[in-house]
Amino acid sequence: MRQVSLLASLGVGLGLWTGAAAQVMPDTSAELMSFRIAADTSGRHFAPNSFALDLTEALGRHDLSFAYRFGAFGWPAAWSPWGASPQQVELQFSGTAFNDLITGRPRYDLLPTALLRTPAVTENFIYGMAAVAGELRDLAAEEGGPLTELHYQAGDNGLQRVTAVHAQRLNALMPGTGHLHTTFAYAGAAAKGEYPGSRLQRMRQVLLRVRLRAHRMSMEITYLHNQRRLGAHSGVVGDELVRYNRLIASVSGLGATRRDVRNDLIATARTRLIPLLRQPLTAVLSASSQTLRFNGTGSVGAEARLRRGTIHLYQDLEAGAHRARFALEGRTSAASADSTQIGEDSQAQWRLTLTDAVRFGSIDLTAQAGLHYLVNGWHGRGAMGLRYGWHSGHLSVNAVRASAMESHVAQYGWSAYLAPAARMPGTVTRVTARLRYSVRPWDLEPSVFRQRVSSVTDYLEVAPDSAVVRHLNGSSIGAGIRLGFRQRTRRGVYGEAAYGIMRSDYDAEARNGAQPDWTARATMGVRYRLFTGDLILDVSVVGRAWGRMRGRVLHSSTGLLMLASSARSAMDPSGTLDIVAEGQVRAATLFAAFENILSGTTITPGVELVPGYPLPAQRFRFGVFWPIVN
């Protein structure tokens, strides 16, 4: 913990010492994206008041990717871009990594979904397959006064979730020193679960954010506390008809539970350190702790506690047509002394990155170079991007050579449930191209990619609840196309259809259809404004389909989704169909959804995205989002 305290003291001292430098912009959000080649963050991907369970529902609509979902709050849903392992995606929150401290998987389930902006995906991320940024909305700044938001969802099988948010903007303690923005949120959820042993027993979340916006500086402190306790059974057993019948189905590992307790403290300071530079220096410091406890059947179980401290500094520079960023990030982590099951050694890694963006008329060019320090030394990485835009569309081409990500359990194992492996400097090389062409009312967007991985960490199931670490080698290639019709219309019919194919040539153990060879989705809806605009109604039908696959299996003790053993049978092509209605009555928004309506019928007896964990069949959900300006 000494390292964390030292980093925190350094960051606070830096912010106070430089507080009187010069005027800076008050925005403190740590932007880790490319400067001028940004991902599409249009509202069609995600809305803060939507009925999504977590970010994976929005990320699953990203072209050439696949989302492994359980259809339940708190369960370890995952997202896999370009055929990559879902553990190789870095999730970012308020300028710092938000992956699991112990297992390394992105913790989409721990983010405050109701408070987030639209998530942004960075393809040219040189320290993993991709980066997903989930940033808090600045509620007090948006509304200008005290604001209270209530988010409520309910549905079948005892499912309910509530989030209460209050944000307020106040004058600072002394006149002329700026404004103080405060945000407090509490969230809780519970569910009996679709099958025995699936119960979400406890889900609690508390968020507190204080932001000072002054003339010469801005500072922000965010605290996020999460508790999760849910069933961790090993899957539904039986033949197809029995397995999909929730009334008579049974599960293996009925009494198993998995519990997470996590605390994150994030401090951000932004001010001008060098008078000759117009752009301010931003410092982000975070201290995180996590406890993971698995209680299996009988007396079998495992527990681990880990702490991590992070410091991230970045400085923007401008010279002529160039816009550059210099970034330095350091992380240190250590397990508690009594967590010998995952090793006690402290670890440190450093990231040094220089990015430059330049514009030539309608052409944007970016170049990125970085050094990544791991236990076995420094490794060079880089990326390049080109974007050419015109009045009706744009073409973008990106190439990246990135470092593969490693987790604590990959190096030290997890009790008797996961065997470790030696740490290796894995790499990812990828080229992507995307064309977007718009002629009202149509949008056309084809895309292609080619990717090769070398010694990239993944996990392979060898028996139920038992796995080993594997370092994969091979390549994948894919192409997709999306067609949109009147997607931004405020009245009338709109629609979207997308189709993608992918082929992989990995090591023999991984050549098992972790993802389907093809995926498709389609949306058809209608929007109306009724009663002189007091009611905005949006009704849509959403369909998804995918090809034959073995999928990724859940490792119940850690929550990792890993490669299935060759003994498992592949799942046949399948799909889902949902009907969603959303109505906005002045400030309030109400929604109702009838999900997976074909499951449990003669057409489709059941649907699985993760083997052994069928999606809830014919589930009805409803909810309300109600902002109150005090």
Helix coverage percent: under 10%
Q: Tell me the overall shape.
A: globular
Mean pLDDT: 84
Rg, Cα atoms, Å = 24 Å
* Proportion in β-strands: over 45%
Structural class from helices and strands?
A: mainly beta
Distance from N terminus to C terminus (CA atoms, Å) equals: 42 Å
Describe the structure in your own words.
With 630 residues, this protein is mostly beta strands. The chain contains five helices and 35 strands. The protein has helices spanning 2-17, 56-59, 139-143, 240-243, 408-412; strands at residues 65-68, 78-81, 89-93, 96-97, 120-122, 130-134, 147-155, 160-171, 179-190, 200-213, 217-231, 236-237, 250-251, 257-271, 281-295, 301-319, 322-335, 347-360, 363-374, 377-390, 393-403, 418-419, 427-439, 442-463, 466-485, 492-506, 518-530, 535-546, 552-555, 560-563, 574-585, 588-595, 608-610, 613-614, 619-629. The strands form six sheets. It has a 22-stranded antiparallel β-barrel. A hairpin with a 2-residue loop joins strand 19 and strand 20. The longest helix has 16 residues, at 2-17. It starts with a helix and ends with a strand. Mean pLDDT is 84; it is low at 1-46.
